[in-house]
Amino acid sequence: MSPRIEPAKAPYPPAVAKALGRLKTPGDEPLSLFRTLARDERLFARFTGSGLLDPGHLSLRDREIVIHRICALNGCGYEWGVHAAIFASAAGLDAERLAATLAPGVADCWSDNEALLIAFCDAVNARAAIDDELWARLSKVFSEEARIELMMLAGFYRTVSLLANGLRLEPEDFAVPFPG
């Protein structure tokens, strides 16, 4: 299937061009997701202004586990593959752990805290809610600010999944292929 909306082409408006310069990825061009959103400067600014890839209250590994799991749960091979190519190695996510983000349930390869992140992703993706038992478990491991960031991260990457899947974005040339 081809993309439903073609990405914008250069030259971009100055603010978009500046933002795209900051969002450099391994490909020759900015991500097709960014270029598609760049068709509308307002939507592009809203989307790129709310990213959570900066150092925050979560470790890189925790952040990437959440991103990979949410994308996997939503069948978003586009974003899963981009993050696998760019961030997985630095986050210590080897082939076994990347595959485990796709597997139902909690795989044996995860530590207790990582298994908690998988359970969190499964819960919020299924119901957009966190029950009291899961909240208590999260509270023992993550600060209040980190728990807020976890919810924002999961919600943001569910939105990314909807955009990439709904737009039928083709995988980036450098991306890790999405299994299955």
Main β-sheet description: none
Order of SSEs: HHHHHHHHHH
Tell me, what's the shape?
A: globular
Class computed from helices, strands and strand pairing: mainly alpha
Report low-confidence residues grouped into runs of 5 or more.
none
Tally of DSSP β-strands:
0
- Per DSSP, the total helix count is 10
Instruction: From the alpha carbons, calculate the radius of gyration and give it in angstroms.
Output: 16 Å
N- and C-termini, Cα separation: 17 Å
Mean pLDDT value = 95
**What portion of residues belong to β-strands?**
under 5%
Estimate percent helicity. Answer: 55-70%
Topology summary:
Layout: H1 14-22, H2 32-37, H3 41-48, H4 60-73, H5 77-86, H6 88-91, H7 95-102, H8 112-127, H9 132-141, H10 144-167
Helix pairs in contact: 4-5, 4-8, 4-10, 8-9
Task: Give descriptors for this structure.
about 180 residues, mainly alpha, 10 helices
Q: TL;DR?
A:
The protein is mainly alpha-helical and 180 residues long. The protein has 10 helices and no strands.
Overview of the molecule:
The chain is mostly helical and 180 residues long. Helices cover 61% and strands 0% of the residues. It has helices spanning 14-22, 32-37, 41-48, 60-73, 77-86, 88-91, 95-102, 112-127, 132-141, 144-167. Helix 4 (60-73) runs antiparallel to helix 5, helix 4 runs parallel beside helix 8 (112-127) and helix 8 packs antiparallel against helix 9. The protein is globular.
